[in-house]
UniProtKB/TrEMBL annotation, chains A, B:
Family from the record: Belongs to the GbsR family.
Keywords recorded for this protein, A-Z: DNA-binding, Transcription, Transcription regulation
Gene source species: Pedobacter hiemivivus
Domain spans labelled Transcription regulator TrmB N-terminal: 21-85
A GO molecular-function descriptor: DNA binding
This protein's name: HTH-type transcriptional regulator
Amino acid sequence: MELTAAKQKFIEAWGKLGSEWGINRTMAQVHALLLVSPEALTTEEIMKDLSISRGNANMTLRDLIGWGLVEKQHKAGERKEYFYADKDTWNIARQVAKERRKRELDPVLKILDELSNVQGDVKDPEFKTFNKTVTDINKLAKNVDKTLDTMLKAEESWFWGSIFKMFK
Amino acid sequence: MELTAAKQKFIEAWGKLGSEWGINRTMAQVHALLLVSPEALTTEEIMKDLSISRGNANMTLRDLIGWGLVEKQHKAGERKEYFYADKDTWNIARQVAKERRKRELDPVLKILDELSNVQGDVKDPEFKTFNKTVTDINKLAKNVDKTLDTMLKAEESWFWGSIFKMFK
DNA sequence: TTAAACTTTCAATAATTACTGAAAGTTTAA
DNA sequence: TTAAACTTTCAGTAATTATTGAAAGTTTAA
């Protein structure tokens, strides 16, 4: 396969995976494009490569910066802004985990805690089932939360080393 | 808080979390409703509780069965079908992990393997960056795949026990 | 058989989400 | 200052995704 075709395929696959996981397809594609670009790119280049509008490129890049996945760069003597993506896969995974935890897991944990404390008649099957489901999910979510916390603090090798110990 | 209000809040929160993770909001809500229902429910009851149409209820329930999260039940002497959700949180987590792996991770792993094998000029920075990014992501994805495999085979206590060892 | 009770399908429509492009805003160099 | 070079905003529109509801299909009991 051609390098150009291979890049294209990577960008498409990444976009599809992103959209299946609730991440805007274009955002995932812009990220993918930057991940396979050795040099930082300008808005113009991104617009052209992915055939997207200036407005879309601008907002998407802003979002990616907000996710901590992309940074602005300036080149000496130039007005234009350049965009560069960290290529360290472990950093990317941690950054995504960190943001999704903050944006999505934390709010739901708060609600689960609240719902776990709802009082009711333990003889009532409606209450019993509600209470069991909510407290069980709350426990699971807290486990996930703790595991993410460990992952965020960890070095890659240590983290996967620990995971691998599970197999032995 | 009222039990009824609490259920409502749980259904909404679950629907929101689902939609943020690429799962149809209604599907997540129907699942949530069944999770807090001690008895199996009919299509009619689900339609009424969530104010959704018959067609939507029917297709959503079919999807949930396809995900292995809900099962049909029949009551003796009755024509109607009843729907029941497994309430074991660990089973639910494993089932979701299993399906998403099959539907989303496996296809992307296949593409990453293919792209990892693309040949090129190691002196070309374009190729070098592409190759590094793709092979690194491929490695990470394979680690996730293996971890999921372990999780799918594991008992809950064993799995979380192993995770907790990471903290010590 | 048949008709009532129930389930499934899917074309039409609604709701949501994403994108465009032009205008407004900002920065820089002369 | 000013005007060129660049970035940001956002109302309007397009694309995608989800839902409805009525018709078609199926099952069961008499």
